[in-house]
Amino acid sequence: MTRVVKQEWHHKAAARSLGHLAIGSKQSEHAKFEDAIIAAGAVPLLVNLLGSDQPGVQALSAGVLANLACGSQQSRDAIVAAGAVPLLVGLVRSGQPILQEAAAGAVCRLAIGAQQDRDAITAAGAMPLLVALLKSDQHHVQALSACTLRRFVRDSQQNRDVITAAGAVPLLVGLLRSDQHHVQALSAGTLRSLVHDSQQRRRAIVAAGAVPLLTDLLKSDQAAVQEEAAGALLILARDSQQGQHTIIAAGAMPLLVALLRSENPNVQARSAGALWSLAFGSQQYRDGIIAASAVPLLVALLRSDCAAVQEEAAGALHSLAFNSQHCIDAIIAAGGMPLLDVLAKSSSPAVQMQAAGALRCIKGMDSSDCKIM
What we know:
Order of helices and strands: HHHHHHHHHHHHHHHHHHHHHHHHHH
Number of helices: 26
Strand content: under 5%
Distance between the termini: 59 Å
């Protein structure tokens, strides 16, 4: 079949056939056909076809490479080594939607792998182009772009600066209004990753109107959307009076308390963490969280099998118990003391620290650290 790829009139058919083989109906089949395609020397030929003057051939070839890149690191290494990255980035730059979507899909899947693959994509100038694709009117392209950018913002401060400078913040905030759940979740998650280490970017996101939109997403019936929205609010509330005030004013607090009842551990952890960030702000906020009946729900989460849920719930109780006899009484009434005693001996140092801190606040042994985050 790879010999057929060399014949111009068979390019589309061969690329399409290789694409079907690269997908496979089962994971074991995918690995088998992936290995066969690479062993047959098809990758360099497919990369060569990215430079074709036929958009259909280019798009099909990019799609096959995307399917291959979903597999092993060996496949991704072969694609990068064959010089695919500059050609794929060129297709993203092309302005033709069919080529941009196919190439962005391949770039997204190459970014799954090793750091050197993402470095190659960065060196080819992909990030500003991916930011521009957030403006697409195609939901799939928006999602691919947000997903890929999220992988890059996690890598380095430099990447976060480049992506911010390219205008990503207002575009991602705008996508929170999408009617597509996966676009909402990916946009909220990318914003969270973009700002986790920058107070300046947090202020920019708040100023761009993200908080009311994220608050609305807490009402979603999709756990992935709830998780990412709560996670973004968690970061925006951290060490920021402006962020905390805006979140409270948007009405997020009772929604976060309600999400403590979720059956999804990730939603539970992010919601408890957001309440913890708010509780760290002021006594007024702590009183509001207590009045919203958060304490019994947080105590119930101490029973979770998930260490992240235990840590966030214990941390929230740790901060809420600061200077609040009412909260302490509520923790005791909800049966929190024996649960905190158990978690203070957890194998997780983070869980230990927050549970032990909450116990110190409750027992009045040392209130000076009761608001530690």
